[in-house]
Amino acid sequence: MYNRHNHRSNGHGGGRRFQNRFPSRSQKTDAEIVRAIQAIQITEAQEGDSPQSAYIPKNRFEDFAISGQLKKNISDKRYVTPTPIQDQVIPAILQGSDVIGIANTGTGKTAAFLIPLIEKVCNDRSQKVLIITPTRELALQINEELYGFSYGLGIKKALCVGGMNERKQRYELSCIPNFVIGTPGRLREFIESRALPISEFNNIVIDEADRMVDIGFIADIKYFISCLPQTRQSLFFSATIPPKVKLILGSFVRNPITISVKLKESIDNIKQDIIKVTDSQGKVDQLENILSQEGFNKVLIFGRTKWGVQRLSNELVRRGFKAGAIHGNKNQSQRQRVLDDFKNSRISILLATDVASRGLDIEDVSHVINYDLPNTFEDYIHRIGRTGRANKKGVALTFV
């Protein structure tokens, strides 16, 4: 049990200030999130330590119909057994089917679509792949994964995101890459200036579609779909399928195979708990007490606002912690530098807003702390999914 005071917060991102800044939220929304967390705790207590029925994969990576070099690259990344979504999605993509993948973060979906698409390009160099993501961080993560999986295969790629060198990106596009990875704003800019001939791309991946709709990119997604060639392979990944996302699906995929990785499978390895607090000063002190305990080796802390996250990061540094923050007020190079410091353990605490953190895939995160409550339960699941990855155990704490 974690040290905690019986307080209740009405400051530093909570209470009245919270409601004034986000009028669409309510105490009911917060209560629903807390009740959902408590329900999970009750279920865990009822189940005790009884063994869960583990997913048994039908395939091994070496069994897939892919090239020897690609298999070597997978082995070099120490991938041995496919995750449930990889086990089901890779064969479906290899056989040419459109796919709807319903999966939470941390389930291995990036490799699930990259591996078969790399094989497809290796077999036919005229194939072109466009991968659309909601955030720069996720685009960078996919770009990094693509580099590892395609090593030695001579595959050209281009990264098209805002906040980075536009001239370099235009040059990469002029080299006629097989893979283009980008965010909606920059991709649309390049399409409209004819630097990116989207009609030539016969493989399209829309990743984290629900998050793109949340951020406000639905018009851009509809625009991209209207520009695509009729003959294509369409791959669609989303944690949930809300009504607006369903509208997109109808015009995007054709006779798709739907593969769903259940929510519980992605949170089985995460121990969840609630920390009760009262005032802003007590909240920071309590966070300090928690972070000072043993085992808090690599901690990801979520806040609601850019200024709140930065202020908390500054305060933790003042108190002697190695911490850094990523949020929308920092440019891409600053955010990437902080991420690299966290990945390489030069800092042990990373603070982030939801938008800045989308797509983060960092190994060995021991704890996720929700310093401010998320907007929805889906956001809560996204946050805590940053720990307990790759069958490792993790802990998620939520301040209430």
Which structural class do you get from the secondary structure elements? alpha/beta
Strand order, largest beta sheet? 3-4-2-5-6-1-7
Supply Rg.
21 Å
**Average pLDDT metric:** 84
Q: Would you give the CATH topology of the largest domain? A: Rossmann fold
Number of strands: 13
**In this structure, how is the largest beta sheet organized?**
7 strands, parallel
Oligomer: single chain
Number of helices: 17
Note the run of SSEs as H and E.
Answer: HHHHEHEHEHEHEHHEHEHEHEHEHEHEHE
Question: Given this structure, which CATH class of the largest domain is correct?
Answer: Alpha Beta
Q: How much strand content do the residues show?
A: 5-15%
Helix fraction bin: 40-55%
Shape: globular
Domains counted in the coordinates: how many? 2
Low-confidence blocks of residues = 3-26, 46-52
**CATH superfamily (homologous) name of the largest domain:** P-loop containing nucleotide triphosphate hydrolases
* Measured distance between first and last alpha carbons: 16 Å
CATH architecture of the largest domain: 3-Layer(aba) Sandwich
